[in-house]
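User: structure tokens for this one?
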Amino acid sequence: MGCNHTEKSVISRKIYFKKATPKTWAIYAETYSHDSLVLKSVWKVDYPIFHLDTVDLNNDGVCEIVVGVVKTTRWDKRLAKRLFIYKLYEGHIRPLWLGSKLAHQLDSFTIIRGQVPVILTFETDTLGHQLQSEYQLASFGLKWISDKIK
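Assistant:
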């Protein structure tokens, strides 16, 4: 995980997830100033989390939290990996995009950090082909950039 915390007055921030109850997970964002905890935000997630990363996706100086969860959706009843994005608003965790699914079945993802950050996903299409897809944050949801067969 990694994100430069450039917000004014934020000395450091710790973002992590853990199981809150046997069926519930939680994302935690802790803000520290001079080694003292000044704000702790908790967002409960009712689905298993398989991966979490932080990156400033929209170049506003504040980290977004990219979370991989396992769940069904209203339109896709298969239990599958999905991608959620949360934002930090004044240190509090808030949902930004709770995507139902990507172009293909999500296997895993990573972040490519650069001038314009990219979410690199590893997906499987309906024919079983392994794909690497690139997405960027758009005004709502993710914008598909490219696919490459592995």
